Each structure stands twice: as structure tokens, then as C-alpha cells.
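Lab notebook, bench 4. The sequencing result for the construct came back, and we need a structural model before the next group meeting so we can plan mutations. Quick request posted to the team channel:

Model the 3D structure of this chain.
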Amino acid sequence: MAIESAGLLLYRKRQGPEVFLVHMGGPFWARKDIAAWSIPKGVIGPQEDPLAAALREFQEETGFTAKGDVLPLGTFQQNKSKNLTVWAAEGDCDPAQLTSTMFSMEWPPKSGKMRQFPEADRGDWFDEKTALEKIVRGQRPVLEAFYAKLSR
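Done. Here's the predicted structure in C-alpha cell form:
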């Protein structure tokens, strides 16, 4: 059975729409930039409403609270074992104020030392072209769906 996750894509309308993405934390992503950014997202808890999970994960990974109406973007298969349901919400935030929850992992590998890393180490606003380059490949269809709905 697939793992079910939920996420929230924050956007703002300036000269054109911009989306807020987070750079994934931890040593694997530290030196990567292209295809290393993500929509704030996470696993839906048992009996948790998917939209509530998306709002919770957004707050946990960014420290920001999304408010207002949401636009459902759909459910996207991330890989053979993971689905991601995403909503978009219009809003704004200052990337310099991002705070993220931490996760633990053994680092360096096989060292026996557990270290903590932020789930998201930074965030930023991107125009369409840049966002499509920066986002991890599996989430690119989410952005394509968002831009298609926004242009209607």
C-alpha cells in the first residue's frame, strides 16, 4: 500500500505568479540546488484529514501559517510507494524567517553518531521557469497542474 502524503503550495501574484518552495535539509541535499527544492509536505497521520495534514506540514516545515481559501491541485504519484495530495493557497511570507522541525539520522554513515538536521534548510520564492528547474523531479507535475489551473 502506498504512503499517503499531503502538501501545500503557497503562491503570490506579483509581476507574475511566484511559488514558495523549500530546500530539503540534511547532508544529501546540502550541495544540491537544481531539483533539490520541494513543496512543504509530509505523511498524513492516521485518521487525519488530508488538508489538515497539508496545513500542519506547511507550518512544521516553514514556521508559517497558511490562511485563506485553498485550491485543490490533485493527487500525484511520487514513486511506486508514495502519493502526494496538494492544495495551493495564496499568501506571502519572508523566507529569511523560515524555521523548520528537525529530523535525526546517522551521520556520517556507519559512524554510530546521530545528528539532527532541519527538514527544510531554507525557502524562497520562484517564478515559473525557475521553480520548474528547482523542484524535485517527482513534484514537477504538481507545478504544471498549478500553472494550468492558474491560467484558466
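The mean pLDDT is 95.
Will bring this to the meeting.
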